[in-house]
Amino acid sequence: MYEKLVAYAAKTLEIDASEISPESTFESLGIDSLDVVEMVMDLESELGVELEMEDQNITTFQELADFIDSKVN
Into how many domains does the chain fold? Predict the structure, then answer.
């Protein structure tokens, strides 16, 4: 899942995937909350799952990947 998130973000933000690490925060890469919501909505559609993130404090790519993995598996 982590690799999928990195590929998506790199394509969407037009940055090199090597700039993204598991510890990269969305904020450090210029990703605002709307961008995160759009990314999650796209992933929900692609994966066929509902990812309710309202009570989650997710700030890094690895945290988001782990959260999605917990919902998919």
Answer: 1
Catalytic residue numbers?
Answer: 32
User: Which pLDDT score, from 0 to 100, does residue 4 have?
Assistant: 87
Residue 52 sits in a domain of what CATH number? 1.10.1200.10
The 3-state secondary structure of 10-57, one letter per residue: HHHHCCCHHHCCCCCECHHHCCCHHHHHHHHHHHHHHHCCCCCCCCCC
Query: Residue 55 is part of which domain span?
Result: 2-72
To the question of pTM greater than 0.85 for the whole model, the response is no
24 phi and psi, to 5 degrees? Answer: -60, 130
Arithmetic mean of pLDDT over the chain: 88
Gap between the Cα atoms of 46 and 29, Å rounded: 23
